[in-house]
Amino acid sequence: MSFKNSILKSVRHAAIFATVMMTSVAAFAHAHLESATPGINATVSGQPQAITLNFSADVMLMNVKLINAQGQAIPLTYQISNELKKSFQIPVSTLTTGKYTVQWSAMGKDGHNMNSDYSFSIQ
Prior knowledge:
This is CopC domain-containing protein. This protein has one helix at residues 3-29; strands at 33-37, 43-44, 50-68, 73-74, 85-91, 98-108, 113-122. The chain is of the alpha+beta class. The chain folds into two domains: 1-30; 32-122, Immunoglobulin-like (Sandwich), CATH 2.60.40.1220. Strands 1, 2, 3, 4, 5, 6 and 7 form a seven-stranded mixed sheet that branches. A hairpin with a 4-residue loop joins strand 6 and strand 7.
């Protein structure tokens, strides 16, 4: 292998390494749900007044649904806003005992869409 080919090979490896590192950093930069109230997989004894979603960075909350154990959607009064923030509080109506699933979708400042869900139970 010639000296020129060796240098080109080294440059190519460095470019691949830099691309992988930048992609990894970008993946970790996306916002995620840090905590919620009621807590993720929590069992609470009383009626929650609201669902609070706390994100790791400012996001626009695009949608949030509350689903009971029978798969029925519980009406929420959340309306989409263009406001970017880390914490959202969504009032809830009276809930009975049982398991509930919170489904949410959000968009980060970078336009990255994310969605997930979590469950909690009321005794």
